[in-house]
Design brief:
The chain has about 140 residues and is an alpha/beta fold. It has four helices and six strands. Helix 1 packs antiparallel against helix 3.
Length: about 140
């Protein structure tokens, strides 16, 4: 049940590029979580894009666009290696969508928020990481 949210200044990406990036980011997160690539897990991976007025999302020194990617996953879903791979690939996707080069990488920040066990709920109940792993095994076998 991962979630990924991109925040960026309004107007930096056109609608089709923004939508494609939104889908790409969700798929990238599932990949690095090690989740099966199937309809069940694609439906559980939520993504959103929040565009804010440019003057409300800027650095002190210049007016170049900045990008913040907030990732929320269950605690334990990402090892250090997976976190590093996720941050690298998400940054590459955002830079490519914006037409920027790898040298602009510090304009993309990826914040990984691990939701502690017992604090993620869906369908009116607490969802445990072990339940998600069991679901992944079931749907991978099907």
């Amino acid at each position: 049940m991962p979630m990924i949210q991109l925040t960026l200044p309004a107007g930096v990406l056109d609608d089709s590029v923004r939508r494609n990036l939104q889908n790409t980011l969700a798929a990238t997160l599932l990949k690095w979580e090690g989740a099966p690539d199937n309809a069940t897990f694609r439906a559980l991976a939520w993504s959103s894009v929040e565009e804010v007025p440019g003057d409300r999302f800027a650095a002190l020194e210049d007016d170049l666009p900045r990008f913040r990617v907030d990732v929320t996953v269950p605690e334990g879903a990402l090892s250090t290696r997976r976190k590093e791979g996720l941050v690298k690939e998400v940054t590459e996707h955002v830079l490519a969508a914006a037409g920027l080069s790898p040298e602009d990488g510090l304009r993309v920040w990826v914040l990984i928020n691990e939701q502690p066990e017992g604090t993620w709920g869906a369908g009116g109940a607490i969802v445990r990481f072990e339940q998600l792993k069991a679901l992944a095994r079931q749907t991978a076998d099907a």
